[in-house]
Request: fold
Amino acid sequence: QVQLVESGGGLVQAGGSLRLSCAASGRTFSSYAMGWFRQAPGKEREFVAVISWSGSSTYYADSVKGRFTISRDNAKNTVFLQMNSLKPEDTAVYYCAAGGFAVVTTHYDYWGQGTQVTVSS
Reply:
């Protein structure tokens, strides 16, 4: 069992930066790939980024590639999402998830409650 709690969301102007954190409980954190997804009002949840259990592999959605960076610290049971050059279209609730190294929600077993990111123009 893994419990996930996101933090770090907020309101930022376009071009600004935010760093999201996802703290996990449970001794099996390091055995899971960790993903970030987001969901804007009226839209489906979409993939943002994923990192392998070791941190050696990452993959990004085209919409965030070059602006967002996913990382993890297995000693602290935490995964991060550094978001730079934010755009209004990045506005959404951001969720972290634990599961397989995948871009689809169905491959993830555990989800956090989400943190709101709002980017003003």
Remarks:
- The mean pLDDT is 96.
- The chain is about 0% helix and 50% strand.
- The first strand starts at residue 3 and ends at 7.
